Amino acid sequence: MSHPIMSEFDIVFAGGGTTACVVAGRLAAYDPSLRILILEAGQHTLNKPIHVQPYQYPFNQAATSTTVTFNVGNPSPRLNGRAPIVPCGRCVGGGSCVNFMVYTRAPASDYDDWGANGWESENLIPLMKKLETYEAQPGRPTHGYDGPIKVSSAGYKLGISDELIHVGTTYHKRQYADDTNDLETCNTYSPWRKYIDGTTGRRSDAAHHYVYNQAHNPNLQVWDGKRVKRIIFEDKRAVGVEFTSDPVSCPDADQSSSIVRASKLVVISAGAFGSPTILERSGIGAEAILKRCGIEQLVDLPGVGENYQDHNLAIVPYLAADEAVTMDAIWRGESILQESLAQWNSGGKSLIAQNGMDSKLKWRPDDEELKAMDSAFQPRWKEFFQDRPDKAVAIFTAFAAYVPPLSRPLSDILPPRNYMSAGYYTLYPVSIGSVHIKVTENGKEGVDFTTGFLDDPSDIVPLDFGYKKTREIFRRMASYRGEVAAGHPDFPEGSAALCREATGPVDLNAPDIVYTAEDDEAINRFHRDIVQTAWHSLGTCAMKPEADNGVVDARLNVYGVSNLKVADMSISPLNVGTNTYSTALLIGERASIIIAEDLGIDCV
After folding, report:
1. Active site residues
2. What's the pLDDT tens digit per position in 376-390?
3. Which of 45, 514, 544, 564 could be joined to 548 by an S-S link, Cβ 3.0–4.6 Å?
4. Is this model's pTM higher than 0.90 or not?
5. Is residue 126 classed exposed, middle or buried when 0-12, 13-18 and 19+ CB atoms within 10 A define those classes?
6. Residues contacting 304, CB < 8 A, separation 6+
């Protein structure tokens, strides 16, 4: 895509992911005369099937994918010496164009916990409603009905999800509710809505619904394939951005630098990995880190790149009945694909408009479950969860498919049949990591990334219990035909927990598997081998007081400089109990109002 040569804009966005698209799109709609530029290292997503056809979401995670960046963490003894991989969106629209499309919202209290002026839940709930069109059910007081982002039940109902709910409300003794995204309901099984347009069957992402729909405005420009190097300052005032052609998106392009000037504002919006590293390359960060990279310090801001947080996910595969409907055949490209595409093209329905997840539980342990969990979790339960009934410890779900984990994927060796996978991920792990720039041995810039996964001993406990509980639930589901042993813990010979193929489910009232201490060790080892990102990286430019290692204030201004803001998941000072797309959209809506107010623009 060719770009007209315009060397100065009013606002320049360094990064073009979810939040950048929301902010830029809203500001362009508020004042179409504003000259706005988005610089994005990845490529355009406009109407590309891999982004708009929901079923294609796993293909963005393929090893050869250029629509995500695979960030490699430092090896960790807590992960049995493994170097964890954490992908993040790398395209116009960012995570919103590559994520699993599951619609989850954090409890309202998560935002109150931030303690940031103007970010209290009472101020944010109107924005949550403003951004969505909730097609699933009418008249819900916390949902919106005329926003740009569509939320629906999608184009095909999967029976495996009904089985999860049936077992969950009988064997697991939990309640059922149509909506557990009302900002407070917890510990209840429910359908799992999706960021999919219920009419067209297309993914509902930020690029198409905030930016591409304003193609008529020549003042809103997106330059793809542009990697931001650093922010340009004059007397600590941000005045522009230096960038090059991105070597992945534009391998043959000239790598020399260009500068584009920003007369009013620069907004860094490059996510939990990109935003802190742009700041550090610009001389804003901790002295020791900048020094070892040979960068002159502009502002001493030691919080930059600290406070990295995520959710800890395990995906465990099971065999499913031949008659079950799963995503496996369509992902393998079998004959059902063409038939499904024809249905989707004509009416937006079929498995094309699916992600394989139709139900979930926001789980809190009951008294019996708490007693069965390792005592290392008890202090965390008492200090954080016990008196906050709206905070879930984890989300449990059933994928109607084999979903390969980032570590030890089995896709190449599994026979072509039907599968289902248990997914469980913890929402408020204690462990904290960091993201910083470094100079590699060959003198090139790299990223010094520590995930922190499982560093705190309490973090693995709900995962270990989650394996046992989801296995009991899956054993009772009608489509259950046994375990895929290679994707489970390596239980010792003779264990009652040994994995095997089965002819059908056990009775709802069958006794639970009894695990020995040796079995428990196998489960613990298994999680250290396979636990992974939930693709929910945040926190590395935290919105906190500067004295508390903050990077931006409540108006998103970077401390120590002027005309520079950060707006993306990196500003989240604490973890949020949700898949983070909803929060990234929300940060975008709030940021657009803050910027409009700063510029004296009417944003009604």
Report:
1. 536
2. 999 999 999 999 999
3. 544
4. yes
5. exposed
6. 276, 279, 280, 284, 285, 286, 540, 541, 551
